[in-house]
Design a protein that fits this description.
The structure holds two protein chains of two kinds. Chain A is mainly α. Chain A contains ten helices and no strands. Classes of the chains: A mainly alpha, B alpha+beta.
Chain lengths: ~280, ~400
């Protein structure tokens, strides 16, 4: 990072232009988030804006008292398990599909494009479609059924693309070596392939979790009568006008960062173990 | 399941390929091969990439199913059986060590698959690691090992299955030159120590010559010649084998007459060749190719310009290349390049340089008749002399 541009001569003007652009991008990305984090500690006399007066944790406490509008705790208790289920299913389906796609089969390209096409289908439209279908079938919409399906339609393409890349780089000779040493197909998968691609599976789980946890458009009409967290926060923005909103935002952001942190550090630990550094 | 067969016992590591064929779509990788590799021999499958040698190895290993034909190991027909049931073990070109397991767990893998208890499999794996002198590294991860150490782990991991046949896919190609020579001799001594059959795929002829009891030279899915290293090197049957093994000049001429077991040929530019033969002589006018080793050539300056004697060619030195113990002299003989490897002592006694007119001669006993006519080796990627070392035969007349 701090290296000098030894043999390339002075930096061209494009460097400064792009550096400025990147700085703006970083400010735009993290500035508001940091502002929200700070204002979450607003005191009782403070407003929704700066300055921060008499910092306190009162708005965090407020979140857990559902005496006002919104059931944040209840929403979290739906969003969190939903995100975990979505993550688990995304891993399971992506890995199985990744194995299937390692050998070319008739129609594989078509199936691949069909699966990945759900990336371009607008989330709101899909949400409406799922609601209409559930109504037509006489099924109640709920976070564990219709919303689960809607979320999977969003996380699976990402999971598939990651697993295809991971399994595509996996040399078939590892499995062959396992067969050669007397392992059954299942043992080769369990003892060799899964451990080798495990970091990739963590990455898929991370995508599944975070994409589901903060998904709005696909949840909008599919969660039924009880909201998930992003929907609950959205509802609150129209009703609540206190820094409680910021406290809530800070907490959900923390959950997302925690998920990313756990995922990335477990990948790092695995890779350190494999390279033998302890 | 034991089909009645000739002599080999069920536990023998004799490999017999019968009419073995493998096609991938429209391409034929292996074309109706028949080959018997004796029990306990070191066999090298040698050929350029894409000649089908690795496909044969993988079919013997059980990782590829033949399109047609049969594979016997010992007395058993093994097509359709798992690698472990065949008694084979394959050492992969990339070694395919499991990156998430320690050296010890890699070696113990097959015991785990056989449901050997944890303590017992650790004990056996440690014993095997001691044999390959890697016991001190048993807790390392594969990524922490050098290429040579990784290879020894791969060997240990294969050998712990007690195979009767060890299959090696280009085992030395990932190593640097120094390590390659060391591992080469380690492989050879390991094979004689174990007494099991080794089948080693390579595209490097010195490797094959140094290691093999039996060299199988392959070209485009077929076996060109199979025999001892000595025979393959000194008595190649085809121009392809001669070129691939290197060290040979391939010459072609038309039969003038045969008498007293000596075949007389007429080559290009007035050259005459005499080749002793004990086989039925080809009729007059027939075109014949033969080889003479580059290090069996006498080279002298062409000072007198007298008429050509039999078994010599005249030309002009095109280039010399220092090779340490000998000097490689490229001679332009008009329409082709002829190579003489002159020992450094002989060379310094009578040095030649580019542009010198020279006569290259050899003794009739040093020739070897080929079974097929040389069609020129231009574009032959593996012959070490750039252009064909041919003197055009008088095919027209």
């Amino acid at each position: 990072m701090a290296g000098s541009t030894t043999s390339y001569g002075p930096r061209p003007w494009t460097f400064y232009a792009l550096a400025t652009l990147f700085t703006l991008f970083v400010i735009f990305l993290y500035g508001p988030m940091i502002a929200v984090l700070i204002l979450a500690f607003q005191g009782p006399s403070g407003s929704l804006d700066f300055p921060l007066r008499h910092p306190s944790l009162m708005w965090f406490a407020e979140v857990f008292h559902p005496h006002r509008v919104g059931d944040v705790v209840g929403a979290f208790e739906r969003s969190f398990p939903l995100a975990l289920i979505v993550a688990a299913l995304t891993v399971l389906i992506s890995v199985s599909a990744g194995f299937a796609f390692r050998r070319r089969f008739v129609g594989s390209t078509l199936i691949f494009y069909t699966a990945v096409a759900s990336l371009i289908v607008p989330g709101l439209v899909l949400s409406i479609g799922i609601l209409v279908t559930f109504r037509y079938l006489g099924l109640p919409a709920a976070w564990y059924s219709s919303a689960l399906g809607a979320h999977l339609s969003w996380t699976l393409p990402f999971g598939l693309l990651i697993m295809f890349a991971v399994l595509g780089r996996l040399s078939p000779s590892y499995e062959e070596a396992a067969y050669d040493l007397g392992a059954s197909k299942w043992q080769a998968v369990r003892w060799v392939v899964i451990p080798i691609v495990f970091p990739g599976m963590i990455a898929v789980a991370l995508f599944g979790f975070t994409l589901s946890y903060d998904e709005f458009p696909r949840s909008w009409l599919t969660v039924g009568s009880k909201n998930t967290l992003p929907l609950e926060i959205w509802t609150m923005t129209t009703n609540v006008t206190s820094p409680e909103l910021y406290a809530l935002g800070a907490m959900t952001t923390f959950v997302s960062f925690l998920a990313i942190g756990i995922a990335l550090s477990s990948i790092a630990i695995i890779q350190r173990t494999r390279s033998g550094r302890k | 399941m034991n089909r009645p067969s000739a002599s080999p016992s069920p536990g023998s590591g004799e490999i017999r390929l019968v009419n073995l064929t493998k096609t991938f779509g429209v391409t034929t990788a292996v074309d109706k091969i028949d080959l018997t590799i004796p029990h306990g021999s070191y066999c090298c499958l040698l050929g350029p990439s894409g000649c089908g040698k690795t496909t044969i190895l993988r079919m013997i290993a059980g990782h590829e199913t033949p399109t047609a034909g049969e594979i016997y190991i010992g007395s058993e027909m093994v097509v359709g059986k798992s690698p472990i049931a065949r008694g084979t073990a394959l050492m992969f070109q990339s070694y395919a060590l499991f990156p998430h397991l320690t050296v010890l767990d890699n070696v113990a893998f097959s015991l785990k698959a056989r449901k050997v208890g944890k303590d017992e499999r650790r004990r056996q794996a440690e014993e095997m690691l001691r044999r390959v002198h890697l016991h001190a590294l048993k807790d390392r991860m594969p990524a922490q090992l050098s290429g040579g150490q990784q290879q020894r782990v791969a060997l240990a991991r294969s050998l712990i299955t007690n195979p009767r046949v060890l299959l090696l896919d280009e085992p030395l190609s990932a190593l640097d030159e120094f390590l390659r020579l060391r591992m080469r001799s380690e492989l050879k001594s390991l094979q004689s120590e174990l007494g099991i059959t080794f089948v080693h795929v390579t595209h490097t002829q010195p490797e094959a010559i140094a290691l093999a009891d039996m060299v199988v030279v392959m070209d485009q899915g077929r076996i060109d010649q199979a025999g001892s290293a000595n025979v393959i090197f000194n008595r190649p049957k085809t121009p392809y084998v001669a070129r691939f093994m290197g060290g040979q000049n391939v010459l072609t001429g038309t039969v003038v007459r045969t008498a007293d077991g000596v075949l007389r040929l007429k080559g290009a530019n007035g050259a005459q060749f005499e080749i002793p033969t004990n086989q039925a002589a080809p009729p007059q006018g027939f075109v014949v190719s033969f080889t003479v080793r580059r290090d069996h050539i006498n080279l002298r300056k062409n000072l007198d310009n007298r008429a050509a004697a039999p078994n010599e060619v005249r030309g002009v030195v095109e280039a010399t290349e220092y090779q340490g113990s000998y000097i490689k002299v490229f001679i332009d003989v008009g329409g082709g390049v002829f190579v003489a490897n002159v020992s450094d002592r002989d060379f310094s006694a009578d040095p030649v340089e580019r542009g010198d007119a020279v006569v290259a001669s050899w003794s009739a006993a040093d020739t070897n008749i080929l079974t097929s006519v040389d069609e020129g080796g231009a574009g032959e990627p593996y012959s070490d002399a750039a252009p064909a070392t041919t003197i055009e035969g008088l095919e027209k007349g």
